[in-house]
Write a structure and sequence with these properties.
The chain is α+β, with helices and mostly antiparallel strands. It folds into 2 domains: 71 residues, no CATH class; 60 residues. The chain contains 4 helices and 5 strands, in the order H-E-E-E-H-E-E-H-H. The strands form 2 sheets. A 3-stranded antiparallel β-sheet has the order 2-1-3. The chain has a two-stranded antiparallel ribbon with strand order 4-5. A hairpin with a 2-residue loop joins strand 4 and strand 5. Helix 3 packs antiparallel against helix 4. The radius of gyration is 32 Å and the shape is elongated.
Length: 148
Amino acid sequence: MNLLEQEEINMLLDNNNQDGTKYYAHLNSRGFLFKKETADAPPRTFGTRVVEITKADYNEISIGWRMVEGVWVKPEPVHEQAAVQKDPRVVRIEELQKMLDESDYKIIKHLEYEMVNKSTPYHIAYVHDERQSWRDEISELRIQLKSN
């Protein structure tokens, strides 16, 4: 037997865990690898799935790989998604809604002051008119969006 044949046999033995070392992969509930280890006895599972793997798999796979029907699947590289341009009307609706949300406290404060017969720190007619103009603009923008 030449040196090359012996190396191939050794590699086959190692790949089939014939060297006596056992290799394990810990998988989460969705089958993703989150830990790998070598051990003399099967490791504790702690609610995860532990599978015995080959030395070749142990050396090749890494955190994030997934086992699907007994086959290791390498995660696809994450590409930055192109920024999705929102319709400017949608952006404006979000801005107006935020303005309404942020001014809610004025209405609440006004009601609270009124309940204890105190004068309010805000001119409520102005606050109401401003908020109503925002609601009207939101309604108009929504109508435009529906018609497209």
